[in-house]
Amino acid sequence: MKKDTIAAISTGMTNSGIGIVRISGEEAFDIADRIYKGRNKITESESHTIHYGHIIDGEETIDEVLVMIMRAPRTFTGEDTVEINCHGGTFVLKRVLETVLKNGARAAEPGEFTKRAFLNGKMDLSQAEAVIDVINSENEYALQSSISQLKGNIKNKINDIRKKIIYHTAFIESALDDPEHISVDGYGETLKSEAEKIIDELEILIRSADNGRVMKEGINTVIVGKPNAGKSSLLNVLSGHERAIVTDIEGTTRDILEEQIKLGGLSLNVIDTAGIRTTDDVIEKIGVDRAWEYAMNADLIIYVVDASKELDENDDKILDLIRNKNTIILLNKSDLDTVVTAGMMKERAGNIPVISVSAKAEQGIRELEEMVKEMFLKGEISFNDQIYITNVRQKNALSDALESMKKVIQSIDDGMPEDFYSIDLMDAYESLGSITGESVGEDLVNEIFSKFCMGK
Question: What is the mean pLDDT of each run of 10 residues along the chain (456 residues)?
């Protein structure tokens, strides 16, 4: 069946040095020849070559361009592809695209180039989802994880598990069809051992989703402490600019300040809250109540203590709140004469880590960075062979597969007939297939690619 030839601007819609209009489909070369004027015809040129010339609309010259041509199947989409590199002004890009559309192409839908790559077998669904994750990456770990997925590490792992499952399913089905020649006597124990190994693999992948979420979405972090402890100063240091107003007046921060910062390759979605203390000021009390609320739902609490002042009942209240949360205590103003030591703080805080810092002198930030990485990434992250699940859809599919594999073991323990094993094995097989796209419906595929940006 002949598919439409599609086109879109594949670079950002802002004035820049260069912009690209991409064309993909069976008529890509013919359309290019209708609008390109140069030494050679596009249809007669070799694949993976670049040609200098002009884009024309009738008698009008639109722009001076370089045209890259790539013949199927050695292209991103698996189809004949033309990329017109023109000047990057938004107006000229639109004019070039309009000329392409006028001469036979259809405007591509969001993600349609990547969708065609998936449908043409150039990548599986997990790799396609990694494409948008690469584009949306906001820190080094998110980028490296997405690149690793784009190379096929999830696809390879899922295919390996599916091969094991389908082997045992095929054996059981064959035995049931031909009991005279294939025996399943004692096979339950063999299958149970293999199913337990598969369950271990699935659980490792599911657990990796905690790291994956942190890499992709960032750590929801709340800074708490008494008024004038240096919370806003810390936020300014971490963000690299004067995000919060800093004064010597207690209670300056009364509302919530939000900022996304980069710390050691990770993203922290930081909220600076009002200073926590007992107060009769109605407005300040609202800010304190909000601080408690945000802290209760945070992934990480950074408790800033003014080490130059004695601890009081407000500190005790804060410690009661954070005792069972992921918390790091920062003894701030360590560059001054201090009355609160790390030892004193640990006596009150128990197992909560304590770091001496100076937001003003920007001291101790490196130690904070290492502590956050240790707390959330459980040590060094490697993208060579370790897989991190960063996609909720994929995690849910893995969880479904895990439940099916547990049912297999339950059926074996209950002495159920062998055909019960194959039912749950196939359920696990199908759930895993939804990750790579081998068992997904058209509606899900359309929903996934609709989230892509235009031109990709």
Answer: 86 89 96 95 95 94 96 96 95 96 95 92 89 78 80 91 92 79 78 94 89 80 83 80 42 59 82 62 57 78 87 83 85 82 82 86 86 74 68 92 95 86 92 88 80 79
Report the 10 Å Cβ neighbour count for 62: 17
Give me the DSSP letters along 309-324: S---HHHHHHHHHHTT
3-state secondary structure of 148: helix
What whole-number distance in Å separates Cα of residue 283 and Cα of residue 271? Answer: 18
Give, in order, the Cα–Cα distances in Å from 17 to each of 21, 60, 88, 317: 14, 22, 5, 57
pLDDT of residue 312: 84
Residues 6+ apart with CB under 8 A from 272: 223, 231, 232, 235, 243, 244, 253, 256, 257, 258, 259
User: Coil, helix or strand for 253?
Assistant: coil
Strand extents, DSSP E, 108-182: none
Tokens matching residue 93: 């890009």
Residue reference for tokens 């190379």 = 151
Prediction pTM value: 0.73
Instruction: Identify whether 73 is preceded by a cis peptide bond (ω within 30 of 0).
Output: yes
Rounded Cα gap, residues 113 and 221, in angstroms: 37
